[in-house]
Amino acid sequence: MLNGSELGTFRKQLLGWFRQFQRDLPWRRTKDPYRIWLSEIMLQQTRVSAAIPYYQRFLRSFPDVHTLAAAPQEEVLRLWSGLGYYGRARNLQKAAQEIVAKHGGEFPTCLNDALALPGIGNYTAAAILSIAFGAKHAVLDGNAARVLARLGAIRGDIRESQRWQELQKTADHLLQPKSPGDWNQAMMELGATLCIPKSPLCPLCPVAQFCQGRRLGIAESLPEKRKKRATVEVTLAAAVFADGKGQTLLLPPPKKTKERASADHVPTLVSKMWHFPTLSVSGKPSGKLSAFLRKLMPGVQSRNWQLVPAGKVRHAVTYRAIILLSFLIQVKKLPRITGAKQVPLGDISGLPISNLTRKVAHAALAAAASAPAKQ
Ligand code: SF4
Question: In sequence order, what are the beta bridge partners of 314?
Fold first, then answer.
């Protein structure tokens, strides 16, 4: 652990580097806690370059916490559509509603109040409060943790609870108390731009002289790899109806039920957004899909339906490797399914949908273009 003049030099060099070389990012041009919060939530599972257009588009529709709190949830999800991990958007809006109801529309400055908001954990609270209000809370995210593990040559799985707590203590100790917001961003910026996972750019590093990992020649192998959970393959089949006018059917997000609470619940795997009728299959997928559709639409005459294979879409969700087989069903008139909505197959993004559903629609459109239309 660095102390005294060494700690002073470490802080000065890292902050000086950050102030000179930081990337110009839209959320760095503001101290508005709402905008900083939005960026932090978007960046949780999304790369900076992918998040920027979403961030700008979202703010055009919801420029402040009040507009977000009052918006229809479907509109919030639609603007999030494509970013994935939609629970983030739902929690963001719930938290905005709490901020309006309990905090007069002002983001809370107290750590415990911030932590009580949906979707805000230790990292996010520390980032928002330090950057927006200069509060002295050190952040620890994946980037900062990698930097600290290398600086201290820390071995083992850094995500193990005790090791993570030790890293948090180190982050708290290193925090520059006069500029906690810049300091936190500097630690994360170092991890994002120089102390990168593979082949860290040590010759450019402003704090290389303090780095034990580099001194021992082990920086690149730190942090040590986590033990990976074995991948489970899941095969799903989706039915894409198309009528003569190019309309299709999408089912609504699954309601909260005991069944949905299971991580293997099919619509949850597909996403919690609007989706094509989908089920998990093995063996003959088209036969199972037909039986599933008959159950979904009792009484509907389905004997003449032809299920045309429309391609495979691959998707990974945590440890699951999903293969989604899509089937095009061309019909004169779309069947009625309770709760389903009719939308143009060529433009299903009027409803909140996931990337996976978008890919299935593209595959079905391509199949429809090469298949004769239903008479
Ligand atoms: S010297 Fe290299 S490994 Fe050490 S903190 Fe700097 S970039 Fe990371």
Answer: 323
- Atom 8 (ligand 1) nearest CA: 195
Q: Is 187 in the pocket of ligand 1 (CB under 6 A)?
A: no
List the one residue out of 199, 207, 202, 128 whose CA is nearest residue 174.
Answer: 207
**CA-CA distance, 37 to 43, in Å (whole number)?**
10
- Ligand 1 mean position, distance from CA 31 (Å): 29
Give the CATH architecture of domain 232-370.
Alpha-Beta Complex (3.90)
Query: What distances in angstroms separate CA 241 from CA 27, 170, 342, one per listed residue?
Result: 42, 57, 10
Residue-range domain boundaries for the chain: 4-221, 232-370
> Per-residue pLDDT tens for 295-340?
888 877 767 788 899 988 888 877 888 899 999 999 999 998 888 9
Q: Is 202 in the pocket of ligand 1 (CB under 6 A)?
A: yes
The verdict on the CB of residue 147 being under 6 Å from ligand 1 is yes
Residue 76's identity, in one-letter code, is: V
Chain-centroid distance, C-alpha 145: 20
Is 98 annotated as catalytic? no
Q: Which residues pair with 241 in a beta bridge?
A: 329
Spelled out in words, what is the top-level CATH class assigned to the domain 4-221?
mainly alpha
Residue 31's CB: how many other CB atoms inside 10 A? 12
pTM of the model: 0.72
Q: Name residue, tokens 């998040």.
A: 51
Nearest CA-CA partner of 367 in 262, 242, 200: 242
Give yes or no for a contact between 37 and 108, defined as CB atoms under 8 angstroms apart.
no
